[in-house]
Design goal:
Elements lengths: L2 H17 L4 H16 L4 H6 L11 H13 L3 H7 L17 H11 L4 H9 L10 H18 L3 E2 H15 L5 E6 L1 H4 L4 E2 L1 E8 L2 H9 L4 E7 L3 E6 L4 E7 L4 H9 L2 H13 L2 E4 L2 E4 L5 E2 L4 H7 L15 H7 L13 E5 L10 H10 L4 E4 L14 H17 L4 E9 L10 H4 L4 E5 L8 H12 L6 E2 L17 H11 L2 E5 L9 H10 L3 E4 L11 H10 L13 H9 L4 H5 L3
Parallel strand pairs: 4-7, 11-12, 12-13, 13-14, 14-15, 15-16, 16-17
Antiparallel strand pairs: 1-3, 2-4, 5-6, 6-7, 8-9, 9-10
Helix pairs in contact: 1-2, 1-6, 7-8, 12-14, 19-20, 20-21, 21-22
Length: 582
């Protein structure tokens, strides 16, 4: 049983107990357990085998025993008993904004509503508006949230959402008196997929900004509009919410809507112990009712006695505890990147020449670039035969000799065949500066076969990097079935680096895998997998994943100067390749 399934069990238990109006401390314990488990970078089955369930922060004896039951039997009696007390789809109601446990209970008991479809029908027929203390306006809001929830189910990648955000911000930023326009929510936290988009800002005349927002050319539907906020649907079906506040309240607003939910809950718990309460408007001193406003998030966190927490870390893990101690890491920045280890050219399936890719890298102030076209096995990608590869090596070296203060490395993205062997013999691989190995076929193998296949490739003395290790395509293809923990341990043993593939539809390794790999001592690098010069800009997505994985500059090989990279590559997969610090 995987972590996601176990986490869902505890989240369901928390929601069902809320419906029963049970002890709030018990409910919160299950909620914490669900989030902790879902965020773990290692499978609970492995943790249980090592006898370390109780060592996980937030997992007490009772929860640990339930995890053990789920892992060993696949069932949990208390969960099944709780579920039997309610209709099968009742939990879907609580996923709708505005429908809390009390409202969900009333809808079920008074209107026999037990699913989202039931609720939508009851609203259209006027039954919800007729309920005491609900009314027509509440019913309309719930219906709007149902429609929004259905849109959220059609999540888009960060790569699709971010350009939309930037386009809107650029348009609204031209209005006089507008300041601080910033994405919030999952976009700002650089989550891999996005349900909807939140944009925050301040303005001398908020109403004029709202008016301009709802008339942008990207807008296909206006869901709602007020003096300081509006909701629209843009061309790709994504909902975009804009909120404007006074300049001196921006920090509070941005913090509140950046989230995540679990981070903000933990922050509210901490504030409550300090006699404070938090909202989008500021921090309220409970005794006096005085509201303190904050123009910046830094001031907001400082008021709570915390080091500023970067958005990418706000996931309700242990960031608040580390911020209290002042021990949060200085995360890697895009400006730390000095080169790219994985790009393609028109020699295989890329669109630009080697020289164009090199010039594009230099224009970004990079110090090095590795050309890694596809190997011969990727016929569909016009993979290089041995003869063509050697011709390319000669061209790369000739161009490299003409470039000053820049290093162009020869390389290949070599296919890992179904049995773990590689597309080229070692004698050919030995002629290259860098070898990036990847799986592109036979992805349906069982976990044991796939794991052994990858580890065999890592054992090859000429393979420096494993590219897009789980082969996933967001929303299109599930990850391969592989024991990622064993791959991490093999990477450490063989001194092989693992790639964070920055393509927005991959982002592979994902954030919790990056976190675990870093903990185990795996060395990491970012590859854009660029197929054109413009694709080099995708580096920021890889940096975002690295930041979500708590990486500092020294954890990512792309932050090395070209001379250091050259020295490391010449030494092969020796200890220096994996342990050099900067």
């Amino acid at each position: 049983m995987k972590n996601a399934a176990i986490a869902q069990v505890f989240q369901d238990m928390a929601d069902l107990l809320e419906l029963k109006e049970e002890n709030p401390f018990k409910i919160r314990a299950y909620q914490r357990a669900a989030h902790t488990i879902d965020s773990l970078p290692v499978e609970l089955e492995q943790v249980m085998k090592e006898g370390k369930l109780r060592e996980i922060t937030g997992i007490g004896e009772a929860i640990a025993n339930k995890i053990t039951d789920l892992l060993t039997t696949g069932h949990l009696e208390s969960y099944e008993k709780l579920r039997s007390e309610f209709p099968e789809n009742i939990l879907s109601l609580m996923a709708i904004r505005g429908v809390g446990p009390k409202t969900a209970t009333r809808l079920y008991k008074e209107l026999d509503v037990s699913s989202v479809d039931d609720l939508e029908k009851a609203i259209v027929e006027g039954q919800v508006a007729a309920l005491y203390r609900l009314g027509e306006k509440t019913a309309e809001n719930i219906l709007r949230h149902i429609q929004g929830l259905r849109r959220k189910d059609q999540r888009v990648t960060l790569g699709e959402a971010l350009p939309v955000v930037e386009e809107i911000i650029a348009d609204l930023g031209k209005i006089r008196g507008v300041r601080n326009l910033t994405p919030a929510g999952s976009v700002r936290r650089f989550k891999e997929t996005i349900g909807d988009i939140d944009i925050m800002g301040t303005a001398d005349d908020p109403e004029s900004v709202i008016q301009a927002f709802v008339h942008l050319p990207q807008v296909e539907e206006v869901l709602g509009k007020g003096a300081t906020k509006a909701s629209v649907v843009v061309g790709n079906g994504v909902q975009v919410d804009l909120r404007m506040v006074e300049h001196d309240s921006f920090g509070s607003l941005l913090q509140y809507f950046t989230g995540s939910k679990d981070h903000n809950i933990a922050l509210r718990d901490r504030a409550s112990r300090q006699g404070l309460s938090l909202s989008e408007y500021g921090i309220t001193v409970t005794k006096t009712g005085e509201i303190e406003r904050f123009a910046t998030e830094e001031g907001f966190y400082e008021r709570l006695g915390l080091q500023y927490i970067p958005p990418e870390l706000r996931e309700g893990r242990n960031e608040i505890e580390e911020a209290e101690k002042g021990t949060l890491p200085k995360l890697i920045e895009a400006s730390d990147i000095k080169g790219d280890f994985h790009v393609h050219t028109d020699w295989s399936d890329g669109h630009d020449s080697i020289e164009a890719m090199a010039n594009a890298a230099r224009s970004r102030d990079y110090q090095f670039l590795a050309i890694t076209d596809h190997s011969v096995g990727r016929g569909i990608a016009h993979g290089l035969s041995v003869e063509r590869l050697r011709q390319q090596i000669a061209e790369i070296k000739a161009l490299d000799r003409k470039l000053s203060n820049f290093r162009l490395f020869t390389g290949i993205e070599v296919d890992i065949r179904a049995d773990g062997t590689l597309d080229y013999p070692d004698e050919v691989l030995s002629e290259l500066d860098i070898v990036v190995a990847a799986i592109h076929s036979a992805m349906g193998q069982d976990s044991d076969t796939m794991t052994k296949r990858i580890i065999r490739a890592l054992d090859n003395p000429y393979v420096h990097v494993l590219s897009h290790p789980t082969c996933r395509l967001l929303g299109i293809r599930e990850p391969i079935d592989v024991d990622i923990e064993e791959v991490f341990r093999a990477a450490v043993r063989t001194n092989t680096a693992l790639e964070i593939n920055a393509m927005p539809d991959r982002l592979d390794l994902k954030d919790i895998h990056v976190l675990r790999a870093r903990e185990l001592g795996v060395r990491l690098l970012i590859g854009t997998d660029a197929h054109s010069a413009g694709n080099l800009d995708l580096m920021r997505f890889g940096v975002g994943v690295a930041r979500r994985g708590w990486c500092q500059a020294e954890h990512i090989l792309n932050t090395s100067a070209f001379g250091e990279v050259e020295s490391l590559l010449k030494q092969g997969k020796g200890q220096a390749w994996m342990t050099t610090s900067r």
